[in-house]
Structure prediction request, 708 residues.
Amino acid sequence: MSHLYPDRYLRLDGDAVTLILAITDGVPHVLYWGERLSAETDGAMLARLALREEAPASPAQQIPVALTPMPGHGHVGRPGVAIHRDGRDWAVMARVVAVEADARAIRLTSRDPACGIAIEHALAIDGDVLIATTALVNEGDAAIDLAHLSAPVLPIPAQATRILGFEGRWSNEFQLHSRERGVGSWLRENRRGRTSHDAFPALILADPGAGEADGLAYGLHLGWSGNHRSVVETTADARGQVMMEALLFPGEIRLAPGDRYATPPLFASVTRQGLSVLSRAFHRYLRARPEHQRLRERPRPVHYNCWEAIYFDHRLDTLLALADRAAAVGAERFVLDDGWFMGRRSDRAGLGDWRVDPAVYPDGLAPLIDQVAARGMEFGLWVEPEMVNPDSDLYRAHPDWVLATPPAPAVTYRNQLVLDFGRAEVRDHLFGCIDALLREYRIGYLKWDMNSDLPQPGGGDGRPAADAHVRGVYDVLDRLRAAWPHVEIESCASGGGRADYGILARTDRIWTSDSNDAIDRLAIQRGFSHFFPAELMGAHVGPDPCHITGRTLSLALRIQTAMFGHMGMELDLRTLDDAAFAELQAGIALHKRHRALIHHGDLVRLDAGRGVNAFGIVAADRAEALFSVTRITEATGYYPDPLRLAGLDPTRRYRVQLVWPQAIPARSALTAALIEGIEVTGEALMLHGLQPPRAHPQTGFVLHLTAA
Prediction:
């Protein structure tokens, strides 16, 4: 026999998933991670089914892929931990010495007395999402250098041969790309110091035929706002596993005796019902978190952000006029963006000096805030506390407070440097600045921006400080949330450069992308939706033409695209004529009418064919739905393909009505019927499909469905 039977089995069940751990010769490993098993199927049964014969040129007894694969265990793949003490104590071989387990959580402690370390694994299931962390404790009498430590390692079934990874760039985030999994390693690394635009720390492993409505799919996300590494490894014995971890620079983590380092949490789920069901598992987890309660207590307010209307040209009369127009069009929150503080007439000066500039606002922000409040809106303010301009009072007083790698010359982004949030004095100073603003003014919302990577993340002691910076940012945000629990905070990082579950434990909204181009936004928002629900997705109606892409798109399409997130506007409302203003007003009213459905319903992305972006939001009781359909490119034939909806109750009848654009002409019997409303069964809509109207590229429509 070439396989050791496990000594013990541990099981966690979610609503629709099951995790079974086995402990073999003291080493914990995942025996099963997949859809929920009945009580009749137990670990011993699965262990017998996993029995393998001895293979040529292989160990006589197969070595399980541990939660933390260890060098001393004989694992020849990538280790889950890499440590040393002056070149020794590297061949870790820890064995379980303590187990705490109940129906929803497991905690394991393993020790290696020879290396003087303990490894702790914590695993829990919330809904259908597994949350798992690994911690390393130095139990020796000398310091340990930690090179890397993975969150608990999960196996990949043989049929999950497709890797869906997320790529992109500034203004084009969350682009989904598919690759085949083969023998060897798929590696994605990020050293930008924030989650990044180009390497979102998540992936999906799926079978070749998996689509939105069916197929095996595993989703994994590392909840961390800094450097990270994801590895999908397939060994020659056909076993696959996923490792996700914070990426550490050499010497960045040194553990003194008694010190402990914990990985960021890994969030994972699995289904055989396709990618949309996988996304809904993550959405339901986020919505159920205690941190999300504040977002359930009131409707998500429609934003007006003044950035693309005025940039740095702050004039009180202009802002008061914009506030009047914003209130009239339906905005519920007015956000004053960059340019309000000392010396900030461009991006070359002022960052770090978080005091209202009396040259622009001689009476402070009170006159603007008072008018915003008088118009029934909440006031929000843009800040970028992690950054400093060399041309600022703060930098002149504390040039040593920035991250740097001397003697290398400083690398700037947007004429700014990064403050070292790993230093307590930096954190205390910036917390004090923001706290003072919140004390002086009625501010209900902070847009926390971060317009730079961490290109030279060296601390004052010369050691790498990227990890400490992220933990320092978390600390300041936690302190602000504790001191000002009613203030909502947005995570912005040149758009979607810091979007992850780590930052979301401390913030209420993600600015998805700096691009408000509706066509680009459709792909960005679709990628974002794989792990985040609509109410966390900042989505704005931008100007025409788009300031980033230069593309001209109809106001109707820009409204339709923004409607399905946390809706806002970012254009100069003074330039709209009466017809455009009325159209925007109607679009915001439509969003508000269906806001509860959009922000609480179940997402269903549709496999609608080439050149079409289509998705829906369906109520939990399936009594109501909204579907958005956009024709991106010209149809290949005279008529578009029938649109098969999803997520409906096949046994119910639905009234289907076209509700957007507002002024679509009844140019045919088809459009006339949709404007009037037709009544059909759910099964007809899902199995036969609806014939969409013929449409030009870059146009769309919204359908509202109500159960009859």
Notes: The chain has three domains: 8-288, 292-596, 606-707. The chain has a mean pLDDT of 96.
